[in-house]
Amino acid sequence: MAVGAILPFWGAAAQAIGLDQAKQQGMVCELPSGYLRATGTATSDAQALVDRINVKRQAEYGRIAKEHGITTEQVGSMTAEKLSPKCN
């Protein structure tokens, strides 16, 4: 499955745009669906970051799903298993 192949992409993109810092500060967490959620402590910049990354993830999940004959939801769920921190 190519899901593991996208994880380095998220890590590289995350550092460049501040996702790691937003996660460390508790402003952003990972949903079981493989998408991000801004928490109640998130700034407007953190929310914008979440929105941008979720759009990119949706496109990538769609590409992978089509390539492997599965749904985008399945790709997102498999990816979510490898990401943290999880939302409560």
Structural notes for this entry:
This is DUF1318 domain-containing protein. InterPro entries: YdbL. Strands 1-2 form a two-stranded antiparallel sheet. Helix 3 packs across helix 4. Residues 11-17 have low confidence and may be disordered. Strand 1 and strand 2 (36-38) form a beta hairpin. The chain has 88 residues and is mainly α. 62% of the residues lie in helices and 7% in strands. It has a domain at 28-88. The protein is built from 4 helices and 2 strands. The protein has helices at 3-17, 19-24, 44-68, 72-80; strands spanning 28-30, 36-38.
Write a short abstract of this structure.
The chain is mainly alpha-helical and 88 residues long. The chain has helices at residues 3-17, 19-24, 44-68, 72-80; strands at 28-30, 36-38.
List the helices and strands and how they pair.
Elements: H1 3-17, H2 19-24, E1 28-30, E2 36-38, H3 44-68, H4 72-80
Antiparallel strand pairs: 1-2
Task: Name a few traits of the molecule.
88 residues, mainly alpha, 4 helices, YdbL, DUF1318 domain-containing protein
Helix/strand-derived category reads: mainly alpha
Low-confidence stretches: 11-17
Number of strands: 2
Summarize model confidence as the mean pLDDT. 86
String of helices and strands: HHEEHH
